[in-house]
């Protein structure tokens, strides 16, 4: 708990058996109340390892629903158990769990409703082994989005994120893609809804066991990001009515 607020860490897992325990051991369990792992039909022993670690909630997809589909299950579960602060942490050990206290503090103190762990602030990305082509694409796409969305972030593509419950209740994340562009759509929705986003410098690690999408899927993601930015702009100008920006049922009551 943080000042009476329930803290939940959600982990989208796919073939994470080799890195899950290492990630788990660095989670500040004295601060985190609930751990939720969603296994997206892994081909390894991810669920078995998660069970051995005593993770509170384990969701198992019988078929692979994609990175976005995985997150939908996680966020819906976090809201179901009434978590107040929700941190998404990849169980592949690419992002350090040691930043969780800082992210919780920022949201818990009401400074920002959303916090991103940025690999671009400082020199974390290239130093951690991010491929040069991904770094260049990250910088181009981020510049493009900052212009079209009229916001300013150091990057829109980090997978290390923390949210207040109010944010997840307000945006229609279940309408998003089940693929990797889900992350980008979610940030677009958050900015569209008027929530403030804070960033903290985050070291990152690229290694064989860490998840990473290949070049063809990276290109597909990049094109999806451009489309999200254009749709965001069109809707802001009142020229569109994408379901992504429809208010949730709770918001309409």
Q: What does this entry look like structurally?
A:
The protein is α/β, with parallel strands linked by helices. It has one domain (7-252): Spore Coat Polysaccharide Biosynthesis Protein SpsA, Chain A, CATH 3.90.550. Helices cover 41% and strands 14% of the residues. The chain has helices at residues 20-25, 46-53, 66-80, 100-108, 124-127, 132-149, 165-170, 182-192, 215-236, 249-252; strands at residues 7-13, 34-39, 57-60, 85-88, 114-118, 161-164, 197-201. It has a 7-stranded mixed sheet with strand order 3-2-1-4-6-5-7, with helices on both faces. The mean pLDDT is 92.
Task: Name a few traits of the molecule.
10 helices, alpha/beta, Spore Coat Polysaccharide Biosynthesis Protein SpsA, Chain A, globular, 41% helix
What profile does the largest beta sheet have? Answer: 7 strands, mixed
Q: Indicate the CATH architecture.
A: Alpha-Beta Complex
pLDDT averaged over residues: 92
The CATH class assignment is: Alpha Beta
The number of distinct structural domains comes to: 1
Which stretches are low in confidence, meaning pLDDT under 50 for 5 or more residues running?
A: none
Q: What is CATH's topology name? A: Spore Coat Polysaccharide Biosynthesis Protein SpsA, Chain A
Helix fraction?
A: 40-55%
For the secondary structure, the number of strands is 7
Topology:
Elements: E1 7-13, H1 20-25, E2 34-39, H2 46-53, E3 57-60, H3 66-80, E4 85-88, H4 100-108, E5 114-118, H5 124-127, H6 132-149, E6 161-164, H7 165-170, H8 182-192, E7 197-201, H9 215-236, H10 249-252
Parallel strand pairs: 1-2, 1-4, 2-3, 5-7
Antiparallel strand pairs: 4-6, 5-6
Helix pairs in contact: 6-9, 8-9
